[in-house]
Design brief:
The protein is built from 18 helices and 26 strands. The protein has about 650 residues and is an alpha+beta fold.
């Protein structure tokens, strides 16, 4: 199929288009890219999993390397364990084989490979391998014989598909370039201080052409005139009918060729099919799930043809989406159920053909008993969600918000940690002592740990001593008192009140400016013709009156003062009535403070008054206390006379 390659070098993004549709993306972003060669240091060795973590710098996450990927170190010492091969602070030469994803750092390997245009040099490899895509047996034999002759001893060579039909001189030149690159890496590793980057393919255009260019490409579009010359230099004089074009507006090259539109569509879970069906693609941490639905497709004469047609059409689109979204790992596809075994085999054959050009080598495992198709695809860099997507700050990436019990408004999941903190602070307010007997009871019930509120209050017992200042007592009480609600006036007509009442919405949503905390707000509705300030003033008076009632009942407000053991309270006439209160004497012992409660005897009230018992020996109460209840007498059945 005729293709064209669009390269935005300034943005380091390239796209492969077929029939003006984006089929594949290459994005060179991030600190660690596949193919980077580092000189790192071993941070720690994990013998339990035969692996180690290597510090390669420029990242908060260390790289992970398994014992099977150690390469020359493992070959040198045979079947030794990981602790015999690696030790902390040891220098190692590694290459990035998988970019960091999520909470995982980059995956590293000691089996280095340097890709060229026609060959791949493996400095620690062995033998010669030829690409399977070269079908002609005579050409495979020619390339294999040439690689055996030019291969340096102690290395391995992989002949790429692009070498098909290429002259021997071009292949030898490519090998010499790779050998010079490997020699430069070795020299840098001897003098550099780890962790340090030793080699990276900085020329983005060369990387794109090396990985994506083939004889099917008829057009290459770049964003600078200098890039045109580098494309011609890389491809050489024998370019056939290839057209190399410079797009004038470099900033709009992705919009002009609809690359940005393809990225936006690829971030959506739903993909519509031309026949009316659709596909849902949902990535998860463990695997990617794909669901196929027929939708409105009813073109076929019977249900069997409809299902087969929709599944085959979906298989073609899924193969394209796997490449476009760069989905790797395990993929589970739920096609529409097909009872015919013949139809299932036809679908699998069609799906295999649709994925034959995928360089990630997807492999179909099987069809399960439930009709699910399992396949695996090699991970190659970050997928489109990691490159261009971010977790929603409101829902936390779940795609929905929460309505908590007893709440009128929708609660974003991002605010739930704040709600949890408010509940925890409220619990701390309940269990913290506030003086008096009730405070002591709360302290005994709530204190569950040595570092809880009890231990803190024992250390600050001087705050409750007589003679403490009034400001200290008031500040201690105000810290535990809940903040007064925010008073808000909202203008609403009767229809709006009715709608908000039906939907159970909070009128504070209409407030301008919006309140800081919807959970701690008092709303007063201002109807047409009413003054907002007057409504708020009435509400303030109601709040003040309710606060005064709370002070008279519980004495928690700031209206009462206690100075030198004398408390003054408001009377009916507004004057202050002095009330004498006996000062509380508190003695603090040097030993740990322990609350010792005397045993409280439980007494049962007698049903009727009884005479006072006569004096008994001292041992008698123990006998009475340990005496068991006499067994019940067994009733005899009387025989009929």
């Amino acid at each position: 199929m005729p293709q064209q390659i669009v390269i935005a070098e300034q943005l380091r993004i390239a796209a492969v288009l077929s029939d003006e549709r984006v089929d594949e993306l290459i994005v060179a972003q991030g600190r660690h890219q596949i193919g980077d060669v580092y000189l790192g240091t071993v941070e720690n060795v994990l013998p339990g999993i035969d692996a180690a973590f290597v510090n390669i710098g420029e990242s908060e996450k260390n790289g992970f390397i398994h014992i099977t990927d150690l390469g020359p170190l493992r070959l040198r010492k045979g079947g030794a364990g990981i602790t015999e091969l690696l030790e902390p602070r040891q220098k190692v030469l590694v290459q990035v084989m998988k970019e960091p994803t999520g909470t995982k750092g980059p995956r590293l390997t000691g089996n280095l490979s340097l890709p060229g245009r026609f060959l791949v040099l493996q400095p620690h490899g062995q033998g010669v391998n030829v690409s399977r895509r070269i079908a002609a047996e005579s050409e495979r034999n020619r390339l294999r014989a040439l690689a055996v002759l030019i291969k340096p001893p102690g290395t391995g060579l992989l002949v790429r598909t692009e070498a098909d039909g290429v002259s021997e001189e071009q292949i030898i030149d490519d090998l010499e370039s790779l050998l010079r690159q490997w020699e430069a890496i070795q020299q840098a590793a001897e003098t550099a201080q780890p962790p340090v980057l030793l080699n990276r393919d900085e020329d983005f255009i060369h990387r794109v052409l090396r990985d994506l260019y083939s004889t099917d490409v008829l057009r290459v579009v770049v964003d600078s005139q200098d890039a045109v010359g580098r494309v011609n230099s890389f491809l050489g004089p024998d370019q056939g009918n290839l057209i190399v074009e410079h797009h004038e507006d470099a900033s709009e090259i992705l919009e002009h060729y609809k690359v940005n539109a393809a990225i936006r569509d690829a971030l959506k879970p739903r993909v519509d099919l031309p026949s009316g069906g659709y596909v849902i693609i949902e990535p998860t941490e463990a695997l990617t799930v794909v669901d196929v639905n027929s939708g409105s497709f009813t073109r076929s004469a019977n249900a069997r043809e409809t299902v087969l047609w929709t599944n085959c059409e979906a298989a073609t689109e899924i193969a394209r989406q796997l490449k476009l979204r760069n989905i790797g790992g395990v993929v589970i596809i739920d096609f529409i159920d097909m009872e015919s075994r013949r139809d299932q085999l036809m679908l699998l054959e069609h799906f295999t053909q649709a994925m034959r050009d995928d360089q990630a080598r997807p492999q179909i495992a099987q069809i399960t008993e439930l009709g699910l198709v399992e396949l695996t695809r090699k991970r190659q860099g970050q997928n489109i969600y990691e490159l261009f997507g971010r977790a929603c700050p409101s829902c936390g990436g779940l795609g929905h918000v929460v309505t908590l019990p007893g709440k009128d408004s929708l609660q974003p999941l991002a605010s739930l940690p704040g709600l949890v903190r408010s509940v925890a602070s409220a619990r701390a307010e309940v269990v913290s002592p506030s003086g008096g007997e009730s405070g002591g009871r709360r302290r005994r019930r709530g204190g569950r740990g040595g570092g809880g509120p009890d231990s803190a209050d024992l250390g600050n017992a001087d705050q409750d001593l007589p003679g403490s200042s009034q400001s200290q007592a008031m500040s201690a009480g105000s810290e535990n008192r809940r903040q007064d609600p925010e008073l808000v006036a909202v203008s609403m007509d009767p229809d709006q009140e009715l709608v908000f009442g039906w939907l159970g919405l909070n009128p504070a949503l209409l407030a301008d400016p919006a309140p800081q905390d919807l959970d701690n707000v008092m709303v007063r509705v201002v109807r047409p013709g009413e003054d907002a300030e007057a409504v708020l003033e009435v509400a303030r008076q109601e709040m003040a009156a309710s606060g005064g009632r709370r002070r008279r009942r519980g004495g928690r407000g700031s209206g009462n003062s206690n100075v030198n053991g004398v408390s003054s309270a408001e009377g009916a006439d507004g004057g202050s009535i002095p009330v004498e209160i006996t000062p509380l004497e508190v003695t603090i012992e040097e030993a740990p403070a322990l609350v010792e409660l005397p045993p409280y005897p439980l007494q049962e009230a007698p049903a009727e008054p009884e005479p006072a018992p006569e004096p008994e020996p001292a041992a008698e109460p123990e006998a009475v206390a340990t005496q068991e209840e006499p067994p019940r007498r067994r009733r005899r059945r009387s025989s009929a006379g």
